[in-house]
Amino acid sequence: MRFLQRCESVKLVSYAEEMNSRYRHTMEDAHAVVDGFGGDKGTGFFGVYDGHGGRAIAEFLRTNLHDTVVKELHAKGSKSVEECLKSAFLLTGACQIRCHCASPHNFLLRMSALF
Question: Distance from CA of residue 32 to its chain's centroid?
């Protein structure tokens, strides 16, 4: 399935989904397109989240990660942007564990691909 989305921060966003029905019976990945990221019309946040055997973590990240990134960037102080991104991901993961959406072991295994 292919999608097109018009944005202000970029001319056009295009993406496709394919669940690989040979190996999976459901789509476990998620994506986020946040135009006007952080209140800036010229900035976008684009995320692709791999479910790695379950959609719950990918959905949780799609819904929450970009908000946590904005909070970390606004409160960054002397931290680099890279440190803010890592911190936002860890904070979002901790929130997910507290909400019982994932075990700490599963979350850490799934996030290891990002760093």
Answer: 6
* DSSP string covering 46-114: EEEE--SS-HHHHHHHHHHHHHHHHHHHHT-TT--HHHHHHHHHHHHHHHHHHTTSS-HHHHHHHHGGG
pTM: 0.72
Average pLDDT of adjacent 10-residue blocks, the chain of 115 residues: 74 78 77 91 89 77 90 90 89 70 51 45
Q: Contact, 39 vs 73, CB < 8 A? A: no
Phi-psi region of 52 (alpha: psi -120 to 50; beta: other; left: phi over 0): left
